[in-house]
Amino acid sequence: MADPSSYRPKPGQIPDSPGVYRFRDEHRRVIYVGKAKSLRQRLANYFQDLANLHPRTRTMVTTAASVEWTVVSTEVEALQLEYSWIKEYEPRFNVKYRDDKSYPYLAVTMNEEFPRVQVMRGHKKKGVRYFGPYAHAWAIRDTVDLLLRVFPVRTCSAGVFKNAGRTGRPCLLGYIGKCSAPCVGRVSAEEHRELAEEFCDFMAGRTGTHIRRLEKQMMQAAEELEYERAARLRDDIEALKKAMEKNAVVLADATDADLVAVAEDELEAAVQIFHVRGGRVRGQRGWVTDKVEEVTTGALVEHALQQLYGEETGDAVPREVLVPALPEPVEPVQEWLTGRRGSQVSLRVPQRGDKKALMGTVQRNAQQALALHKTKRASDLTTRSRALEEIAEALGLDSAPLRIECYDVSHFQGDDVVASMVVFEDGLARKSEYRRFQIKGFEGQDDVRSLHEVLTRRFRRYLAEKERTGEWEEDRPDGTDGIGGIGGADRPGDGLKDDEGRPRRFAYPPQLVVVDGGAPQVASAKRALDELGIDDVAVCGLAKRLEEVWLPGEDDPVVLPRTSEGLYLLQRVRDEAHRFAITYQRSKRSKRVRSSPLDAVPGLGETRKQALIKHFGSVKKLRSATVDQICEVPGIGRKTAEAVAAALAQAAPAAPAVNTATGEIMEDEEPGTTAGSAGEPVSAGAPDERRGQER
């Protein structure tokens, strides 16, 4: 590894102007390409104290052996040159996009004498009208099959077309009316081109004109008693409407826009693009990238736009490009897009209305794409084996940790403090063995003490069961542990039973305990195990900010490579524990705040509670009722009525909205709030809008 000071240029040698720079390794291979508004200021950031650099940046500058730069006149030129060099050199430390397939387009070859409709992939050709891209080629063929009834444009290859002209007989589509058969002279080249133009107009979004024209012709045919022609036109209209249903209107008519969304974590990012033309979603595409460098969402957006529009044969730039975050600075990118389009392009973040709603849909697609990518990656046996081996090597374990347990603590502004335990066996989640804990040993927020309490309860149970039977039982789904924990008595063997009445047990103890956090959390977990005399379970922590692995008693963390499968598995385990803890914490908070004054009435069950609410309509009206009026409700005696009136009188007079079915006070829930029992798979739901207040 090189010392950056050995190749650091003198400050006076670096120009204070826009440009593009390249870091090269000792073999003269380009390992990083970047652009800067001021080369002098940007490069100075790389040659500071290594301890102040991000680990990924530190690795890059110590791998490099030289740096060089090229001065340009504007930031737009720097943007263009940066993209060209990234494509040429494919530097290992730049963001790398993996677009695993060439997306299909619906193409109309208007550059030919007899235009042809077909599916095309790869580089775009001059004189060809493109619509899309689409996710699947069959989606294009289904749409074309519907439209050929109304716009019988040629779809055959050049060989078939010439053969039909030589024999004087059209192909099957010509016989069934789905081709106008220009090959045998049924229509002229001009008439066929006019059909192709109408086809393109319809695909471009001008659908109302064609449908209104056909409806007028249908009515005219019916008036002239040409019922067969009217029926054929009716079927044509239905075919067009069915084709339109495949491309539902999402924005105002004639709106052309591309919507770009990014879903990311510390290691990877998924990009999704929706192409809207004429107010309709005409296509969708996406890819996944490894984040081998420290990069912001705005920088990911900038790279995505370069990928999307950078090639000479790339996608056409629409009037609007909607993104989740703007690149910094945004002016050069916007100027570059305007130059690519030839007219003004609006690059912005949607703030309200239909465009923001559609951006939410694109964002959900990106999140699902990232989750699917992670699932596919985790399901590979070879990858999982390599991940476990890398973890064992990095942590100095004797063998691969076939069973990993991860713990996380969650709370809402210091209240409803809970913890979660998730279990991974052979690199896969064992959701049936997830467990949840309530923190009741102390009041307030203290993640370190919470982890100590949870691990103490967890492994105290293990020791008790090991001493009694050589085996050990699981914690209860409600967080009790049966060893003097929450609601539990100090007696082992008081756990849940299986179908045959035997205590349910874990298969075997974990080889590795992972906690969400850094050195303090790891020290707390290790202290809990030491106090119980457990020395055969390894402990580590994964700090979220820099994805560093902390070991007990170590001053410095273990930094796994960004491409390490072991780091990916640890991150996935940690994120799953965080999700499970958040879900439990939300469900507890929801149950706590969703209560009714009627809950305080002794002996009043759900049936009579619902009867009261149904009779009076709301708790507010019930509160104003007299005891005699309450007695009129079937099943409510005078004693119960007096208890109801007394309970409502003691409750606060101002009540929020009430569920008329149950009498429960309703609260606006956060998206994705899902209450589940322990061990149940709990969906992640939508992104938490108050994540900053909740851990």
TrEMBL record:
<dbReference type="Pfam" id="PF01541">
    <property type="entry name" value="GIY-YIG"/>
</dbReference>
<dbReference type="GO" id="GO:0009432">
    <property type="term" value="P:SOS response"/>
</dbReference>
<keyword id="KW-0963">Cytoplasm</keyword>
<dbReference type="GO" id="GO:0005737">
    <property type="term" value="C:cytoplasm"/>
</dbReference>
<feature type="domain" description="GIY-YIG">
    <location>
        <begin position="16"/>
        <end position="95"/>
    </location>
</feature>
<dbReference type="InterPro" id="IPR036876">
    <property type="entry name" value="UVR_dom_sf"/>
</dbReference>
<dbReference type="GO" id="GO:0003677">
    <property type="term" value="F:DNA binding"/>
</dbReference>
<feature type="compositionally biased region" description="Basic and acidic residues">
    <location>
        <begin position="491"/>
        <end position="502"/>
    </location>
</feature>
<dbReference type="InterPro" id="IPR050066">
    <property type="entry name" value="UvrABC_protein_C"/>
</dbReference>
<dbReference type="Pfam" id="PF14520">
    <property type="entry name" value="HHH_5"/>
</dbReference>
<feature type="domain" description="UvrC family homology region profile">
    <location>
        <begin position="259"/>
        <end position="529"/>
    </location>
</feature>
<dbReference type="InterPro" id="IPR035901">
    <property type="entry name" value="GIY-YIG_endonuc_sf"/>
</dbReference>
<dbReference type="Pfam" id="PF08459">
    <property type="entry name" value="UvrC_RNaseH_dom"/>
</dbReference>
<feature type="coiled-coil region">
    <location>
        <begin position="211"/>
        <end position="247"/>
    </location>
</feature>
<dbReference type="InterPro" id="IPR000305">
    <property type="entry name" value="GIY-YIG_endonuc"/>
</dbReference>
<comment type="subunit">
    <text>Interacts with UvrB in an incision complex.</text>
</comment>
<dbReference type="GO" id="GO:0009381">
    <property type="term" value="F:excinuclease ABC activity"/>
</dbReference>
<feature type="compositionally biased region" description="Gly residues">
    <location>
        <begin position="481"/>
        <end position="490"/>
    </location>
</feature>
<keyword id="KW-0227">DNA damage</keyword>
<dbReference type="GO" id="GO:0009380">
    <property type="term" value="C:excinuclease repair complex"/>
</dbReference>
<dbReference type="InterPro" id="IPR010994">
    <property type="entry name" value="RuvA_2-like"/>
</dbReference>
<keyword id="KW-0234">DNA repair</keyword>
<dbReference type="Pfam" id="PF22920">
    <property type="entry name" value="UvrC_RNaseH"/>
</dbReference>
<keyword id="KW-0175">Coiled coil</keyword>
<comment type="similarity">
    <text>Belongs to the UvrC family.</text>
</comment>
<dbReference type="InterPro" id="IPR004791">
    <property type="entry name" value="UvrC"/>
</dbReference>
<feature type="region of interest" description="Disordered">
    <location>
        <begin position="657"/>
        <end position="695"/>
    </location>
</feature>
<dbReference type="InterPro" id="IPR001162">
    <property type="entry name" value="UvrC_RNase_H_dom"/>
</dbReference>
<keyword id="KW-0742">SOS response</keyword>
<feature type="domain" description="UVR">
    <location>
        <begin position="208"/>
        <end position="243"/>
    </location>
</feature>
<protein>
    <recommendedName>
        <fullName>UvrABC system protein C</fullName>
    </recommendedName>
</protein>
<dbReference type="InterPro" id="IPR003583">
    <property type="entry name" value="Hlx-hairpin-Hlx_DNA-bd_motif"/>
</dbReference>
<feature type="region of interest" description="Disordered">
    <location>
        <begin position="468"/>
        <end position="502"/>
    </location>
</feature>
<dbReference type="InterPro" id="IPR047296">
    <property type="entry name" value="GIY-YIG_UvrC_Cho"/>
</dbReference>
<comment type="function">
    <text>The UvrABC repair system catalyzes the recognition and processing of DNA lesions. UvrC both incises the 5' and 3' sides of the lesion. The N-terminal half is responsible for the 3' incision and the C-terminal half is responsible for the 5' incision.</text>
</comment>
<keyword id="KW-0267">Excision nuclease</keyword>
<dbReference type="Pfam" id="PF02151">
    <property type="entry name" value="UVR"/>
</dbReference>
<dbReference type="GO" id="GO:0006289">
    <property type="term" value="P:nucleotide-excision repair"/>
</dbReference>
<dbReference type="InterPro" id="IPR038476">
    <property type="entry name" value="UvrC_RNase_H_dom_sf"/>
</dbReference>
<keyword id="KW-0228">DNA excision</keyword>
<dbReference type="InterPro" id="IPR001943">
    <property type="entry name" value="UVR_dom"/>
</dbReference>
